[in-house]
Amino acid sequence: MKSDGFGYVYRFVIKDYMLSLTDPIMDSKDSDRPRLIARRRVLRAVGTAGLASALAGCSGDEDDQNEGNSSGDSGEDDGPDESDGGNGDPDGEDETDPTFFEQGPTVGLTEVATGLTSPNGLIPAVDGSDRRFILDQVGIIYVHDADGLRSTPFLDLSDRLVALGEGLPNWIPYDERGLLGMAFHPEFEENGRFYVRYSAPSQDPDTDHREILSEFRVAADGEVADPDSERILLDMPWHREIHQAGTIEFGPDGYLYGALGDGLNPFNAQELDTLMGSIYRIDVDERTDDLPYGIPEDNPLVGEEGRDEMYAWGLRNPWKMAFSGDQLIAGDVGQAMWEEVNVIESGNNYGWPLKEGTHCHDPQLGTSGDGECVDVSERGEPLVDPVLEFPHFDEEGYAVGFAVIGGHIHTGSIGGLSESYLFGIYTSSFSEPAGRLIAATPQASGQWPMQELQVDGGLDIQVLSLGQDGSDSYVLGTRAALSEDPLSQQEGVVYRLTE
């Protein structure tokens, strides 16, 4: 099966972009003028930066349904230019809707680390030390402690990464590959083991790169990692440049959970013989048959059709997930219109590409809408709706935000936020750093109500990730706009959330 979703969306974007250049704004009615200005600015940015494929992503120009299936070691086939510089339209209009979300509490941000490129993960130490490990997408893991960011990296994998920013199609303005995830073994203090997800070069001309899950150990002094201790657990050929997700997390059950995107082929998310578009779950302390890891016996597909490693599926690009207690919550980046957050449970099918959020989705056209939706898979599995969703644009055409950034349940005492699910929106603009922070109130059923946090002094970054250390919450991002090639600049910053 072949989908021309990207082709359709791209043609639609270019058509609207060209039409937008001739919008009769000056002759329009006053009531229409803000909408037309916003539409022209957004579409002009789209024409330059490629909205259909930026962090909102495109499902695009897929080949056939089965291409890109990847595997572990078993050998079977198998996670963003405007000329005005973002300072507003010459007529003073703003393309972003600042009132879409209900206004939430005001918070502060304290800068704790700078000089990074693209910080996309903060993982607290599990050995009782006051350390946080900050991942920089360009391949370096830094240690942050009471004295700040240490100059000596904990681990430098930059020489093992695919060449970031090189060879990308012109519709991908931001490279999603690189150092993508890290997790400490629950018994790290005793065994010194930790795990890393990263994008490595491929020698196969038909494969863009390889997605690697590896185990490392700390060096004898315990202060840095031993780069020669790598043991590869998963080596997955990746045929496209994006949609590889990357978060890895140990659950309260001691098993390692990992997020994988659909590899830019939406149909992968409904296939059970590929790990793409799924959350997998493995036992790093055991071995099953000739695999370099074990398969938990209660994984939902053990003894059934499909990959035994799979825990949940039907996901597009689950960029950032985290355990809060025994609940695994993941943000899933949308394509056409909607961003969503899901509570991940064993054996659930989250609907992509048959649905986008709670809405019908046509995987052939790459479009979403309302109507009579498919509510079960071809295998008869119910399609599970997200706990929250938001659109890329409001009803008037103003931008709400592109690309959800999964977060965590905040356990601190910052006014009004205790037990709220904090998550981010990467950006609502391509020409300026315009991330957003959202707090949602978990519910036993139905959609979680959302509020936008009001940041004292404003939020000056594109949000790349959120992190948690005890009761402290952190926000990671870059001050570089999407149109400024963020991976070529050291504009990355880490903030701690404060009153």
The number of domains is 1
Which strand order spans the largest sheet, edge to edge or round the barrel?
22-23-24-25-1-28-27-26
Question: Could you tell me how far the N terminus lies from the C terminus, measured between alpha carbons in angstroms?
Answer: 52 Å
Number of strands: 28
Beta-strand fraction estimate:
25-35%
**CATH top level class name:** Mainly Beta
* CATH topology name: Neuraminidase
Task: Give an account of the 3D structure.
It is a single chain. By secondary structure, the chain is mainly beta. It has one domain (5-498): Neuraminidase. Helices cover 7% and strands 34% of the residues. The strands form six sheets. An eight-stranded mixed sheet has the order 22-23-24-25-1-28-27-26, with no helix packed on it. Strands 2, 3, 4, 5 and 6 form a five-stranded antiparallel sheet that branches. Helix 1 (5-20) crosses helix 2 (33-49). The longest helix has 17 residues, at 33-49. 52% of the residues are buried.
